[in-house]
Amino acid sequence: MSSSRFDELERRIRELRQNFLPQEFDPTGDYEDLVYEQTRAFRVLAHAEFESFIEDRVIEVIDQAVSGWKVSGSIAISLLAVVAYRESAPAIPESLSEAAAKPVKYPALEARIEAARADIHRYARKQNHGIKEKNLLRLLLPIGLQEADIDSGWLSATETWATARGDAAHKGAKMQVKPDPQNELKIVNVVLGGFRDLDMQMESK
Predict the structure, then answer these.
(1) Distance between CA 151 and CA 162 in Å, rounded?
(2) Engineering a disulfide at 140: which of 24, 88, 135, 145 sits with its beta carbon 3.0 to 4.6 angstroms away?
(3) Region at 130 (left for phi over 0; alpha for psi -120 to 50; beta for the rest)
(4) Is the pLDDT of residue 196 over 80?
């Protein structure tokens, strides 16, 4: 079963489809310039929705894991992973007195977990800039998904589409290939389906 956040994403993609793409597609693929402009807008806005979804969902998963640990002491996979993937872990003190005297240098377990959570929050909210492979791995591996959990074919298709989104957002129309709206919708639905699979996997983390 999908999360409420994914359901929101799915609704938003449907709205964008209704607002920006033709209700019926031309079998010849020949459209007025306005349709191509709206298709580019659809691509850029759909990308923004996907990026927002994965950032929100990752934060939701890790926040639930930390809360669960504080309430019951249970260790979720995502909690283990976010600590394991933290790039700079403080040293272990050589004595209890040293730990008590220097709590900033030698933080206790809860402080270390909160620091790891803050790192993933910071990356998702301020440092992540897309849904290319490097972006997704930086978000997904630290919450417990493993490489084998991520469909490599979907990841490649998403990378290609996200690159095309960059062209739509940063290049003038004269420098771009005219996007076919029917094909654009097809690709967006593929990307959406992959995020649905990831969303369901995150439920167990």
Answers:
(1) 16
(2) 145
(3) left
(4) yes
CB atoms within 10 A of CB 17: 18
Question: Is the CB of residue 121 less than 8 Å from the CB of residue 40?
Answer: no
Cβ burial of 196 (10 Å; 0-12, 13-18, 19+) is middle
Give the CB-side neighbour count of residue 108, counting CA atoms within 13 A.
Answer: 5
Average pLDDT value for the chain: 91
Selection from 51, 54, 49, 52 nearest residue 12 by Cα: 49
Enter the pTM of the model: 0.90
Token look-up 């990356």 returns: 123
